[in-house]
Amino acid sequence: MTEQLPAWTATVLGYPRTGADREAKRALEALWAGRADLASTERALAGVRAATVRRLNSLGLPAHDASIPSAFSAYDQVLDAAVAVGAVPPRFADVVGEDGRVDLAGYSTIARGRGADAPLEMTKWFDTNYHYLVPEIGPGTAFRFADDRGVREFSEALADGFLTRPVVVGPVTFLLLAKAAGGSPEGFAPISRLDDLLGAYEDLLTAYAAAGAEWVQLDEPALVSDSATAGVEGLAGLVRAAYDRLAAVEGRPRLLVATPYGDPGELLEPLAATAVEGLALDLVRGDVPARPELLTGKTVVGGVVDGHNVWRADLVAALARLRTLEGPAARVVAGTSTSLLHVPHDVTRETALDERLRGWLAFADQKVSEVVVLGRALGDAAAVQEELSASARARADRTGAPGVVRPEVRERLAALTPEAFHRSDYAVRRLAQEEALGLPALPTTTIGSFPQTAEIRRARAAWTRGDLDQGAYEEFLRTEIDRVVALQEELGLDVVVHGEPERNDMVQYFAEQLDGFAVTAHGWVQSYGSRCVRPPILWGDVVRPAPITVPWSTYTASRTPKPVKGMLTGPVTILAWSFVRDDQPLGDTARQVALALRDEVADLEAAGIGVVQVDEPALRELLPLRTQDQPAYLDWSVGSFRLATAGAGDATQIHTHLCYSEFGEVIDAIDGLDADVTSIEAARSRMEVLDDIARAGFARGIGPGVYDIHSPRVPSTEEIAGLLRAAVASVPARQVWVNPDCGLKTRGYAETTESLRNLVEAARTVRAELPVPAAAS
């Protein structure tokens, strides 16, 4: 490690890793399906990595100063760290080679499970729509630097002429995000293993140095999250000790420690007090340190370009903020607030978008260009005056554009009264719904979607291209709905859904039919593993021009005597899984979406649909990372759901669905939604949520998921029955519903049919075990 400071003036903390045309997704799925071997898959992934590095260089990040991050992952960066330090659960020990490496097949097995071996639990990455795999750490987990895939990927780029900056999940965050492995003593916390883990990180840094790395980026986002750090005593001392130790590694690369997604607050001081050379601060969600002297002698990456949304930056304001870092800092580098993992690749590909709207947007490539401009401006603002002026013009144009503000929407919101947010007491509603629906104890249903087959995707693509006319497409959809309804009746499900064959995505489908939204053609963003979504862009005031779901729900009801469940996506989830306007408070935007959904609920009810599910899987996702900011969020998020649903009559059963959440943190908010039935993810975590539900005294219907749909494995009847027995042991049986964890869109029909058959049989088995009054209620 030399003493000379790097030349870089701009960088990004990460970049989309699926490839501009989702090449990595296709390569992995071909491997999983047996259409490709390991060697060809590795070549395909190497091609994506090489293209990424070259693209970043072409956008202005130099090849030889470590400003280009090496942040690729075949599935998940937390899984990468777990494999690198040997934290592979014992049930997957056979996928680890004698040299400690895990090949792509074994890596995929850990992520996706096999047979009776459940995969690692999956949950949300801070307040984003990305999902990470949760490491399982116990007192006996044997940490060591085991798998050098990251080092090999760095060397691969170096051989191609690019000195990159490896990016690794930091040791503190890795353990704070981990869960105690099965069999751990009560009260065991993975963070207690920090000293043991650091030895593996020391060897990792040494390996990177030997390979020629000059900088390594260690991501520590847990330091900005109160939930991640809750209950950890002496965390500041742990952070200080950890980075004192890593900084003492002889011959190591320089260290850039990043704290994205917020402000590290008081934890910046112990981190800055160590000998790490660089700090990357999120100055979009966070703020300039109140004590700038903490930055003395450091290279500071000022994250002034939002890596989490798609709007063009105010470059003049961003430059001013960067200037405040100058002085104590040894060098100021323009950067992104987070990895660009959360935004699409390139807005110039969106030729179908309105040209004016496109001028307001910046995807990953445009954000790289923005930090490059800011880096140049730090040296000579006059040299980039035209770029700074163009940024200001775009923001001014957006403010006055038609549709950004619609007076009729603002007037309707202003006229709302408190009564618009409340239904009758649940006890009254329950009796009305029992009489209307006539369901058995432990009623069975699904979350909504059924497998989106290749035939469905081909038909939708042909209709979109104009190769299939509207009448033929609708006939295709009716045939698909008939098939799904017949399957549910044959399986014996109690409440039927139409399977959503017409929907490309649970948010995009609604965005396409609401004014104020735009959708993209190529705006793919990784959600987890090979799963990608295209978040819509919410740019203006929201209006529902016409009913959205009513025709398909009423058609379904005409095909079965069973209760049919109408399916809507809730206002918070529509916001969370869209790129939302940043020119007004989120709560105002949520209430606009809620009014549109309120009208849809009313139309479904008028059409005779007696069960309506308003999904809010993202309720926990948007929860602010700092406790002090959470009450205001929970107030408007719960309020927007109630605004959407409170117009329903007593006999209309309102369901909601949540997944990938630490439910204990928001259990009061879930209760506050006042839904008649709440279904939640629970299978992969083996019903951990039941303790939270029981403690909260949750009195309405609850459907803890009994079938993990994010794994291809089929749960047995006995496995599901065991989960159900745990549920009825914690919650009164009359409240319990039986359902999968989530929608079935990503699964195949063979596994879906077998799993649902087991689910129905398990429900019948446990129903027969109930005391007679409970079974008859």
Please give a structural write-up.
The protein is α/β, with parallel strands linked by helices and 777 residues long. It contains 28 helices and 21 strands. A seven-stranded parallel β-sheet has the order 1-5-7-8-9-10-11. The chain has a five-stranded parallel β-sheet with strand order 16-18-19-20-21. The radius of gyration is 26 Å and the shape is globular. The model has no long low-confidence stretch (mean pLDDT 95).
Would you kindly provide a brief summary of this structure?
The chain is α/β, with parallel strands linked by helices. Helices cover 40% and strands 12% of the residues.
CATH topology of one domain: TIM Barrel
Unreliable segments of 5+ consecutive residues: none
| Helix/strand/pairing category | alpha/beta
Shape annotation: globular
Tally the helices.
28
What's the main sheet like? 7 strands, parallel
Assess the beta-strand content as a share of residues.
Answer: 5-15%
For the CA atoms, what is the radius of gyration?
Answer: 26 Å
End-to-end C-alpha gap: 72 Å
Rounded average pLDDT: 95
Approximate helicity band: 40-55%
Spatial arrangement of strands, main beta sheet: 1-5-7-8-9-10-11
CATH class label of one domain: Alpha Beta
The tally of beta strands, per DSSP, is 21
Level-2 CATH architecture of one domain: Alpha-Beta Barrel
Function: Catalyzes the transfer of a methyl group from 5-methyltetrahydrofolate to homocysteine resulting in methionine formation.
InterPro entries: Cbl-indep_Met_Synth_N (IPR013215), Cobalamin-indep_Met_synthase (IPR006276), Met_Synth_C/arc (IPR002629), UROD/MetE-like_sf (IPR038071)
Keywords: Amino-acid biosynthesis, Metal-binding, Methionine biosynthesis, Methyltransferase, Repeat, Transferase, Zinc
Protein name: 5-methyltetrahydropteroyltriglutamate--homocysteine S-methyltransferase
